[in-house]
Structures are given as structure tokens and as C-alpha cells.
Amino acid sequence: MAHRQIIVRMDLDPRQPVQEVVEVVSAMIQANLGREDEILQGVKEAIERVQAQRTKMKGAERDAEPVRQSDAV
Question: What is the pLDDT along the chain (73 residues), one digit of tens a residue?
Fold first, then answer.
């Protein structure tokens, strides 16, 4: 039986991260028609996890004791 495989390769410019991420998501949606909601939901959940981690880290930084530097070398 024949096997069909679609591979998407992209060159990304890290100086334009938002535009590049949008292009990747758009390409994956185009390659997976009918699964748009699943893809978008997965991306949304991943973004929410990262945002929650960043919020936790910011809270930990805010609650941390200031570090005092010693005059000794």
C-alpha cells in the first residue's frame, strides 16, 4: 500500500518571533484541514501553560529576599 507523508519545512527568523509563530500555525492548519479547532485549542493550552509558569516565576521573584553583596572580595 502506498504511504503518503507531508513534511513542512520552514526557515524561521528569530528576530520576528510573533510573525514566524503565526506562519507556522497557519501552515499546520493548511496541512491539516478539518483539524483546525484541535490545533488552535492545543496552541491555546500551550500558551496558557507558559503564561502560568511565567506568572509563578514573577511571583517568586517578587517574594524573594534581596541579595546583599558583601564588601569582601
Answer: 899 888 889 999 999 999 999 999 999 999 999 999 999 999 999 999 999 999 998 887 777 777 677 666 5
How far apart (Å, rounded) are the C-alpha atoms in residues 43 and 30?
Answer: 15
Name the grid cell of 60.
517568586
Helix (H) or strand (E) holding 22: helix 17-31
DSSP state of 67: P
Residue 70 falls inside a structural domain: no
Number of structural domains found in the chain:
1
- 22 is a domain residue: yes
